[in-house]
Input
Amino acid sequence: MDWVLWVAIAFAFGVGEMLTNGFFLAPFAFGGAVAALTAAVTSSGAASLVMFVVSSMLVLLFVRPIARRHMVSGPALQTGSAALVGKRAVVLERIANNEGVGCVRIDGEVWTARAFDDEEVIEPGKSVHVMAIKGATALVSE
Output
């Protein structure tokens, strides 16, 4: 009947993990599950406790850093219009927001462009920096 206690411990740690979402209690929930299996197979309470401690520490030390890296890091490869932000572009047509005109070439593609700063006017031939993409329009700045 010792295994029921370990299942309850694993369940409690699992619920705690869902509430905190920091991948700190999950290793102990895993350890509780391993201890429950050990208690179901053997009748030794000491073996269950040792398995709980060992498996929890192994998951905490080896799996937690990998899980934390995946939780914090964003996508390694940006695609679509998000990949154009930060690139350099060449002004093909005068950019003036108040007139609603402007065109740039970014990586060989022609984009409608507006100045990032509403008062800025950028003449053709200038090299600009793509600050953002809004819909099909590049917001650029010198």
The helical segments are 2-20, 26-41, 45-72.
